[in-house]
Amino acid sequence: MIDLQELDLADPRAVPEVTLRPTWILVRCGPDVLGEIRVDALDARTACRLADDIRETYGATIDARAVPGNVADAGASFRVDAPASIAVVVCTRNRTALLADCLESIAELDPAPDEVIVIDNAPTDDDTERLCSARAIERVVEPLRGLDNARNRGWREATASVIVYVDDDARVDRRHIEAMRGVFAHRGVAAATGLVLAAELETYAQVYFERRLGGMRKGFKRRVLTGQLAEWGFESFHLGVGANMAFRREVLRDLGGFDPHLDVGTPSGGGGDLDMFFRVLDAGLTVVYEPNAMVRHIHRADRRGLIRQHRDGGSGLRAYLEATARRHPERRADINRYLSHWHWSRHVCSVVRAMVGRDLLGTQCLLAELQGSRHGAAAYRASIGTQQ
User: Fold this and answer.
1) Taking the model in full, what pTM does it have?
2) pLDDT one-digit tens code per residue, 7-41
3) Rounded to whole angstroms, how far apart are CA atoms 377 and 253?
4) How far is residue 255's CA from residue 156's CA, in Å, rounded to a whole number?
5) Is residue 90 a contact partner of residue 142, using CB atoms and an 8 Å limit?
């Protein structure tokens, strides 16, 4: 339904492709991801004129980025070390077709990571084993089901100093490792997240999620956060998503790894990434959002999948907050106040607006999120019970 293109301003002859469909153009200059332009259609003349307009619009931005990928651009002051060694960890379970495309994008990374490890989580067939064997990719089986169990197995198996996690339904941008190495060259950085854009917009649900709900993107501006919980409180989802995140191995070790009672494969259904983001900031450490470390994600293709995603998201958020309250009983009152505000904003005000606007899918997604959140705390407790 919507064409996705990229225009690299480092090539002075580059112009958008002619298309009759609505088109979203990612604008970049070599390693720097600058922004996005959306147009209804492009004939040859309009494409050339648009390319000139884009170069004029982003010229000042390009000049201002004298040191692409440098965390210091965002105002941070850290000692710069030698580039960190990087392991890319892909956690997967019975999704070999998606994994194959993900591994193909990883094979095209320039520079290449120091390690690539596939964590095969409680597989029920040997398809992933055969795929990894054919591509000479290291595969490790984690028999205990659960995404966070797989994530923990990944950082324990890796020898690199930085662990980059990408989902099997993500397609990694060729410059991803270059951007992450630039971030983690600063010793004070504990964790990083990156830009997540759509890999395709071919169905109504995919377009709706990206256009109306904002997708998984967190913007095109680099941000450096050091223990700044006051900025978002418990809403650590503003930092990024688990489809594109990275941590120093020592930080994961010191924090005890991901909570195995959270996320896909457990009754909680999600929340593992939110929990880890919160714990990193709560420890007074620094997280960088680096848009140049980009992946493209294959969104849910149908309405049912999108509604289910919101239900799991609501459950995961509530489960992560329950985990936080159990670790910090003194914060339970603050968490309860936040939940009251969140439910009022999301599940009263937003639902009313969606219904007034006759937004059926939006209403269904919000109500599914509410349903998930009502059971998230109990789901977390149930997960603890099943894994004891």
Assistant:
1) 0.92
2) 999 998 999 999 999 999 999 999 999 999 999 99
3) 26
4) 13
5) no
